[in-house]
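Reply to dn_fold:

You asked what the input looked like. This is it:
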Amino acid sequence: MKRAALLSSRDQIHLLLACLLGSCCGVLLLLVGLVLLPLQPIRTTPDLTLLLLSGVIGASAGLIVFLRRELWEPLKQLLKALPRRISSTKTLVIDDGVAPLQLLAHRINVLLAELKRNATEQREQVETLAHDIRGPLTRLLMRVETLGQQEQHDPELVAGLEADLETLISLDQQLAELSEPRHRPIQREQIALDPLCRGIARSYEAGLVVVQIAPTLMAWLDPRLLQRALHNLIDNALEHGGPPVLIGAEVRAEGPVILVDDHGRRGNGGEPPPQTHQGLGWVIVRRFCQSHGGDLTIGASPLGGLQLQLQLGKECLAEPA
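and this is what came back:
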C-alpha cells in the first residue's frame, strides 16, 4: 500500500524557504554583531564554527515559525470549528496548514456527513415505526375493552391484557418522543384539510372518527406533522374519552383552527374528564402548533368530553415566502 507523504511539495518548499531564511538571518545577525560589537579585535572574520552555529540556530527558528504558522495555528482553527453535535450543518474549513491537516479536515467532514445521514435515516425509521404501531395498539386496547363488556369473559385475563397494552402504548409514546428531531425545519405544503383528515379517519374502525370540514378549506402546513398530531389526539380521545371523535376546522382572525372533540366517558354525568392525561401525545401536538405559529388549547367540548383546538398562525393561510 502506498503511504501518503508527510508533507506535500508545497509544504516542503515552504519549510525549506523558512529554514533558509532563518539561516540567512542568523548569519547576518552574527556578522552585524561582530561589526558593531567586536569581541576579538584582532580577528576580523568569524570562524566556521560560529557561522555554522548561527545558521543552525536560524534554521531552527525558521522551523519553529513554520510549525507555528502551518500546523499549530490551523490546528487551533480546526479544533475551534469542530461542531458540538452531529446534526450541525457546519463544514470544517481551514485557510492554511500542512497537507495532512487539510486531509484530516476533509476526512472529518466526510465522517460527520456520514454520521448525520445515518442518524437521520435511523430517526426516520424509528419515527415511522412508532407511528405505525400506535394505531394497532389503540385498536387492540378497544377490542379488549369490548371483550371485557361481554357476559362470558375472564376478568383476570382481560385486566392483564389491558395492563400490557397500556404499557406498550406508553413505550410507543416514548419511542416517538426519542425519534422527534429537535431542530427539524417544517416543510409546508398547500393541502386540503378535508381529504387529509378523512384519510386519517379511515385508519380507524367505522364510526369512531367523524370528519366535518368544508372541502374548500386549504392551509399551508407540514402534512406529516399534522397527521402525527391528529393520530395522537384521536388515540388519546378514544382511550380516555369516548367515541365518536369529531374533527372540524374553521378560519378565525388569528388563523386556521382544527378542532378535535370527543363524547367523554360513559357515566360521567356529562362532565368532561379531568385534564390529567397530558403526556407525550399532547407535547407532540403542542409542538406542531407552535411550529406553525400557534398553540394548543384544551377545554370542555359541547359533546361531553374534551375539545382540543389546534390554533395555527396566519402564515398557514398564505404561501411561504
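The first strand starts at residue 189 and ends at 192.
Hope that clears it up.
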